[in-house]
Each structure stands twice: as C-alpha cells, then as structure tokens.
Amino acid sequence: MTTLTPLRLFKNLSDDTRLSMVLLLRHAGELCVCEISAALSESQPKISRHLAMLRASELLQDRREGKWIYYRLSPHMPAWAAHIIEQAYLSQQERVTQLARQLAASGALADSRAICL
To answer: Rounded to whole angstroms, how far apart are CA atoms 91 and 83?
Structure first.
C-alpha cells in the first residue's frame, strides 16, 4: 500500500462518487457494496472499482461477513486526513442525511443484500 499524501487524498475526493461514498460511510459507519450502490444509484462494478481505489489509498478498511464485504473509514488514516473528511461531512451533512434516508426508505438495505446473492 502507498502512504496517503494530501495530493492522493484530494485526487480521491475530487470524484463525486468517491466523495459521496466517503461521506456516506462517515455517516453510516459501515456499509456493504450493495448498500452503497443502492444509496448512490450506481452499478455494483462501478462502486467496487471506486472502493478499491479508496482502499488502496488507505482511506477504507473492509471485513467479510458471509458473502458480504463491509467497508468503513480506516481508523488508521492520518489525523489531518480524518479532519478534512470530517469538515467535508459537516459541510455536506444535509445531502448525506438525505442519501441515508433514501436508502432506508427504499428498503434497499434488505433488498440490496438479496441482490448480492
């Protein structure tokens, strides 16, 4: 893995999909690919590709539970990077909350896991 630099962080967060994913994970704590895909209305392959980029930058960690892989923000990221993500989250909190509500209201949490099978 590579060391996270400011340039690498900003390149990762400059993409709207990756930024939305990071902020949604900041809000929810942990989500599987299916849940992120449903929340952002994007295909699973696209979401998986972006997740791989974020994981390679050491911004995310994952864990397997049965057939699902869950992603969360890495607790090992540098404090300066966590601070930037926190500030972005605070400035976009309403948008992220709306995405989370949309995900919950659509029943996508239960439906998305069925799709993953």
So the answer is: 12
